[in-house]
């Protein structure tokens, strides 16, 4: 059995990432990386399922021990991707999905340059605006902020390995599935299988 | 419409390449590059379908005019891949299959480093020997020569982009199909589609 690979999936809020990943996980056996956080659990959130809920002291210790692939602070709470669960899954031959933003992805690549980066993009910015509006959860001002942030982030994503355009869920899932299959055909994994 | 891409498909005699490519062409619209040759047509071979049959003088002129992606001489006859049909297909947005050997592939890469190289390999050498034997067309001595040549060629193929192992036709076709889909998600083609 060959070792699993890890895939960073990034994309702006409203692009449809969670729908795509839910569909993809029906087709492939994937470990979806669970983040650690110092924030309190919300009602219905389970430890180890939605997040690993840890206190600040533990979070700090994990940073010092090099136990994170990436970590960051948002509005007073710490979030990070623990290495151990990712590595366990990969050793079991499972591919890993890291659902993280472009800045976090840069931290992961600095540690593990072999990680594959995939950006899920909307067909165009008007369509992203339409999707954000139709969710009905954000004010027009908030939507404008999200759009600006998405456009800024996209500019920094040019080094990604692949761009999947979510013009339809079916198409986006097919492309992600293909990328993962193709990555397992790379020489680093395959060439030595045929010895002489 | 985006420009087509070109894919070099190499692999040893007996690996099942033509069966795989026939199945793949049922799934994707591909232009299968037709070689030019100076040898005489065999019964049933059509000009422009099996080969472009040209005389030595024309072949030499095409070399001088840089009209080949690669060319070589085998047992007194010249064979080459003309650029023009490949380019026409790519301009029409069609992907192109170049069915050529590792040495020819090196010539293509020297001219067009963006060409994707895929090697179709048997699961192991014993299986390739079994397939060559079961075809019943070659003497044991000829089979031994083909095997040795395949093993030598494989050593020089380590720079290929992808290795597809033909353990089953279905699997090999799925992997080739995935590689082509994935290659169309690369930033060179995709990133600029989402302007700001």
Task: Describe the 3D structure.
Two copies of one chain form a homodimer. The first copy, chain A, has 196 residues and is of the alpha/beta class. In chain A, 43% of the residues lie in helices and 20% in strands. In chain A, helix 1 (17-27) packs across helix 7 and helix 5 packs antiparallel against helix 6. The longest helix of chain A is centred in the last third of the chain and has 16 residues, at 140-155. Chain A is globular, with a radius of gyration of 18 Å. Chain A starts with 5 loop residues before the first strand and ends in a 6-residue tail after the last helix. Chains A and B meet through helix 6, strand 9 and helix 7 of A and helix 6, strand 9 and helix 7 of B.
Q: What is the topology?
A:
The structure is a homodimer of 196-residue chains.
Chain A: E1 6-10, H1 17-27, E2 30-32, E3 36-37, E4 52-53, H2 56-64, E5 68-74, E6 77-82, H3 83-91, E7 95-99, H4 102-111, E8 116-121, H5 125-135, H6 140-155, E9 162-165, H7 169-183, H8 187-190
């Amino acid at each position: 059995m060959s070792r699993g690979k890890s895939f960073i999936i990034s994309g702006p809020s409203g692009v449809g990432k969670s729908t795509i990943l839910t569909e993809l996980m029906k087709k492939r056996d994937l470990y979806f990386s669970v983040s650690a956080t110092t924030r309190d659990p919300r009602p219905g959130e389970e430890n180890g399922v939605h997040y690993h809920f840890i206190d600040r002291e533990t979070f700090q210790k994990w940073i010092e021990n090099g136990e994170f692939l990436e970590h960051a602070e948002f509005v007073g709470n710490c979030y990070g991707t623990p290495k151990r669960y990712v590595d366990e899954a990969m050793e079991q031959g499972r591919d890993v999905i890291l659902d993280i933003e472009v800045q976090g992805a840069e931290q992961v690549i600095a540690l593990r340059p072999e990680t594959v980066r995939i950006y899920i993009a909307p067909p165009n910015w008007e369509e992203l605006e339409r999707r954000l509006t139709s969710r009905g959860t954000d004010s027009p001002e908030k939507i404008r902020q999200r759009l600006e942030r998405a456009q800024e982030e996209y500019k920094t994503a040019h080094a990604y390995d692949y761009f999947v355009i979510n013009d339809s869920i079916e198409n986006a899932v097919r492309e992600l599935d293909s990328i993962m299959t193709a990555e397992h055909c790379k020489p680093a994994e395959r060439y030595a299988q045929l010895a002489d």
